[in-house]
Predict the 3D structure of the following.
Amino acid sequence: MNSDVVVVAMIISYLFLLVLFLILFNRKTKSEHKYKELLGRYQIVVESVKEVIFIMDKAKCWLFINQGWIELTGYSSNQSIGRNYIDYVHPDDHETIEKHLL
């Protein structure tokens, strides 16, 4: 009789853990879906504005450039990503840009 109670308790424990896992997995799946949905909306906005939106690393090299950059300069993403922003600034303006903008 005592071993039957232990077996039942173990089965109930395993079922509880399984239900808990399914609940947590469902929450994670919903969160990932919401994240992907928001990311998609963000990408639409970033790519549809006419202004230039960019991300640079600490070395001031382009990591991301939106469509606004391509339309403004004529340089493709492949031509620009990984290059230093200063490569696209007229030499007469280097000092001013370095001093005031960044």
Q: What stands out?
A: The radius of gyration is 27 Å. The CA atoms of residues 71 and 96 lie 24 Å apart.
